Amino acid sequence: xxxxxxxxxxxxxxxxxxxxxxxxxxxxxxxxxxxxxxxxxxxxxxxxxxxxxxxxxxxxxxxxxxxxxxxxxxxxxxxxxxxxxxxxxxxxxxxxxxxxxxxxxxxxxxxxxxxxxxxxxxxxxxxxxxxxxxxxxxxxxxxxxxxxxxxxxxxxxxxxxxxxxxxxxxxxxxxxxxxxxxxxxxxxxxxxxxxxxxxxxxxxxxxxxxxxxxxxxxxxxxxxxxxxxxxxxxxxxxxxxxxxxxxxxxxxxxxxxxxxxxxxxxxxxxxxxxxxxxxxxxxxxxxxxxxxxxxxxxxxxxxxxxxxxxxxxxxxxxxxxxxxxxxxxxxxxxxxxxxxxxxxxxxxxxxxxxxxxxxxxxxxxxxxx
Length: 369
Ligand SMILES: *[C@@H]1O[C@H](CO)[C@@H](O)[C@H](O)[C@H]1NC(C)=O
Ligand SMILES: *[C@@H]1O[C@H](CO)[C@@H](O)[C@H](O)[C@H]1NC(C)=O
Ligand SMILES: *[C@@H]1O[C@H](CO)[C@@H](O)[C@H](O)[C@H]1NC(C)=O
Ligand SMILES: *[C@@H]1O[C@H](CO)[C@@H](O)[C@H](O)[C@H]1NC(C)=O
Ligand SMILES: *[C@@H]1O[C@H](CO)[C@@H](O)[C@H](O)[C@H]1NC(C)=O
Ligand SMILES: *[C@@H]1O[C@H](CO)[C@@H](O)[C@H](O)[C@H]1NC(C)=O
Ligand SMILES: *[C@@H]1O[C@H](CO)[C@@H](O)[C@H](O)[C@H]1NC(C)=O
Ligand SMILES: *[C@@H]1O[C@H](CO)[C@@H](O)[C@H](O)[C@H]1NC(C)=O
Ligand SMILES: *[C@@H]1O[C@H](CO)[C@@H](O)[C@H](O)[C@H]1NC(C)=O
What we know:
This protein is α/β, with parallel strands linked by helices. It folds into two domains: 24-185, Alpha-Beta Horseshoe (Leucine-rich repeat, LRR (right-handed beta-alpha superhelix)); 209-369. The protein is 20% helix and 23% strand. The protein is built from seven helices and 18 strands. Helix 5 (162-171) links the parallel strand 7 and strand 8. It starts with a helix and ends in a 17-residue tail after the last strand. Residues 132-133, 135, 158, 160 line the site of one 2-acetamido-2-deoxy-beta-D-glucopyranose (NAG).
């Protein structure tokens, strides 16, 4: 008798929770505690660009957020073990609470993510922000749902094992956006990427304090990215661009005679005029590429590097804007004035920010014209 009452109580309890579930698409709060299920989270780009009000733009998605947790006994995997057990208790025909859009780990003292951290719960977006002690992600942490992941973002972690992190990223076959800032990744491996749908890769941002301390970029790192549109690399320790670092495999498919633009933003004070190996900027096949430099120590643009770059596609552009404070009207940049001055309107000339269109190079330079 007692058992029956208890069972009935449980059934009624779960029936109520079932109604809750259908209405909100979220499991009840006690299941996820101290994390929570949300139908919207702040749009990460707002946070990155220091928008004073990141909550203003939100992503309307079914998400799980674990925020402001500084409890050393907090066990992230236990939260998901509870959720998956809860899922197996409720009817299998009800709302699907196994598949979520985003997971957001923010302002915690979590140190590591173990193998299969989310049990059998899946996410399309994985976002880790302000977890300053997060140093380890097991190589199989996300294996269960690796084909679901479309977005992977980190900001302010202690991740330094580039070999493991990039091997995890490589498994995300449907990855579309990658955004990693202020971690401790020191290199990008050879052939790091092999993703059909990946369009945006951000390691750091211009006009901000977001960077990734990358010292070297491997050979053919971005070779197998036929749809790459945006690549940002901002690193205070990057000093060398090897011959094959930016090589692309695919010729781009022309759209009414115009190929889709690839924007390549590079920043860092150890990037100098001599940092670029011969042909390192001429392996874009026929892509229309827009290279912008920020806060570099470039003093001149070497004709042997940048002239072939400009000739690799008739639309390709360079931007050596005023953040490159050391740039001078050096004789070694005179070729730009001679060959690429078209018009007094600066945007018609293909080297934006070049301060020497009117400079009298003839006075001091030997000209091989
Ligand atoms: C981070 O979490 C701690 C502990 O919950 C809280 O005191 C602090 O205000 C949080 N920081 C931010 C920036 O939200
Ligand atoms: C820390 O987590 C443990 C285990 O989840 C819990 O029992 C304890 O109440 C939590 N402490 C605080 C201060 O939240
Ligand atoms: C998910 O995990 C729970 C508990 O670990 C288990 O009971 C359930 O059968 C699993 N569901 C699936 C679809 O694998
Ligand atoms: C679970 O799903 C199976 C197959 O769709 C069905 O036969 C079964 O009745 C369902 N169970 C419940 C409790 O709804
Ligand atoms: C939940 O959705 C996933 C794919 O979106 C599907 O594979 C799984 O069978 C669904 N589970 C239930 C209980 O409907
Ligand atoms: C980051 O990891 C290094 C070891 O790789 C360790 O010395 C340091 O204390 C860690 N920092 C934090 C904030 O956990
Ligand atoms: C890229 O090039 C490879 C090898 O030539 C080819 O198999 C693949 O279909 C191309 N992909 C695209 C999107 O053009
Ligand atoms: C980059 O240069 C701009 C303009 O000179 C400056 O405001 C900014 O602080 C610099 N950023 C870094 C990371 O040095
Ligand atoms: C030419 O070089 C001399 C000595 O290096 C320098 O003082 C002068 O300003 C230069 N003139 C121009 C037009 O660059």
